[in-house]
């Protein structure tokens, strides 16, 4: 690992002084410049290269070392920017000096950081529950519904079962009507086909899609519908999921109810509706390996949006390997 040099190069010190006095950069920004330029000097010292003789190949190699140390793309980009700025300053300094002396500037050094870019920032993987966690959450919701049999707990069980069964977005879920409306003044955004066991929703870009619903989720939905239809306050409501006042359920209510239920199920993570969608996608992909089918069920316009779940699938395999393989367990001792 490169060590920060005890003394910065005089030209680096001069540059930092100008940044402080002329450009009046904040102490925090100056500290970052000093750290990045100190690392540049340390790399040059390690490779026995004079700072004024650094080449483009050197910079690329050192950027690679930063990456191998686990530095983020943002951190590497910041370092390259600091290095580039210093070499630009050197070039301008040489140009001014040569102009004052009346010399040609043909021998000025080229900026060795030009055309060197930080590695692309990796997209963060969506957070998904494990299969065990997802089942624990659904089972907790169903258990509470069977015990209490009240409007909210039965409704919540149906919602969570449907989210995990079909991978719907929260907006899609809340737009579902009990059945497709024939009224032109109220065109249903989504609806359930109770006989076919599938849900039709209006996704992004105004595109409709139909997604199958598993048997357990259909049972939860039918239990909810029976209780819903018995409530006098919903006689005129077409929305499938309603509040205690009969209004179509709000996103915040679903988010809050899911978060509370996850805590009662003992899950160690903050659970939100979109996490159920991610869990659905990754678990179906783990079992089926059918990326195209998952794309269609999620309603992704491009399969590239669905391919991120292959990374989640690999994470699942890596975790299973670490837990089960004798060599993996031995390596942790």
Any descriptors?
single chain, 4 strands, mainly alpha, elongated, four-stranded mixed sheet, 333 residues
At a glance:
Helices cover 58% and strands 5% of the residues.
Your description of this structure?
- The protein has 333 residues and is mainly alpha-helical.
- It is built from 14 helices and 4 strands.
- A 4-stranded mixed β-sheet has the order 1-2-3-4.
- Helix 1 (10-21) packs antiparallel against helix 2 (27-46) and helix 5 (131-148) packs antiparallel against helix 6.
- Mean pLDDT is 85; it is low at 102-108.
Summarize the SSE layout with pairings:
Layout: H1 10-21, H2 27-46, H3 56-68, H4 73-101, H5 131-148, H6 151-166, H7 170-174, E1 176-177, E2 190-193, E3 198-202, E4 208-212, H8 215-230, H9 251-264, H10 273-288, H11 291-298, H12 303-306, H13 308-324, H14 326-330
Helix pairs in contact: 1-2, 2-4, 5-6, 6-8, 6-10, 10-13
Distance between the termini: 25 Å
What strand line-up does the widest sheet have? 1-2-3-4
Radius of gyration equals: 30 Å
Helix content: 55-70%
Provide the β-strand percentage band.
Answer: under 5%
């Amino acid at each position: 690992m490169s060590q920060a040099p005890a003394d910065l190069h005089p030209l680096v010190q001069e540059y930092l002084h100008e940044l402080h006095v002329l450009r009046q950069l904040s102490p925090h920004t100056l500290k970052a410049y000093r750290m990045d330029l100190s690392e540049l000097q340390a790399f040059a010292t390690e490779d026995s290269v004079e700072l004024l003789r650094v080449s483009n190949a050197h910079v690329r190699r050192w950027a690679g070392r930063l990456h191998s140390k686990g530095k983020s793309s943002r951190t590497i980009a910041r370092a390259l920017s600091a290095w580039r700025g210093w070499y630009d300053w050197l070039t301008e300094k040489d140009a001014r000096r040569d102009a004052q002396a009346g010399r040609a500037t043909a021998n000025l050094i080229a900026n060795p950081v030009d055309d060197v870019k930080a590695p692309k920032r990796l997209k963060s993987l969506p957070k998904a529950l494990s299969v065990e966690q997802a089942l624990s959450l659904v089972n907790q919701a169903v258990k509470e519904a069977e015990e209490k049999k009240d409007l909210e707990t039965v409704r919540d069980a149906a919602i969570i079962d449907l989210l995990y069964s079909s991978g719907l977005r929260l907006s899609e879920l809340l737009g579902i009507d009990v059945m497709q409306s024939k009224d032109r003044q109220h065109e249903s955004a989504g609806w359930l086909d109770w006989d076919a066991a599938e849900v039709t929703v209006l996704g992004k870009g105004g595109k409709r899609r139909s997604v199958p619903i598993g048997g357990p989720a259909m049972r939860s939905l039918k239990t909810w519908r029976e209780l819903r239809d018995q409530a006098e306050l919903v006689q005129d409501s077409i929305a499938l999921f309603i509040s205690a006042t009969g209004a179509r359920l709000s996103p915040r209510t679903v988010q809050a109810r899911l978060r509370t239920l996850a805590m009662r199920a003992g899950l160690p993570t903050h659970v939100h509706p979109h996490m159920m969608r991610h869990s659905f996608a990754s678990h179906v992909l783990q079992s089926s390996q059918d990326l195209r089918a998952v794309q269609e069920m999620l309603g992704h316009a491009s399969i590239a949006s669905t391919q991120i779940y292959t990374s989640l699938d690999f994470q699942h395999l890596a975790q299973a390997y670490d837990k089960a393989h004798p060599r993996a367990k031995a390596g942790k001792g």
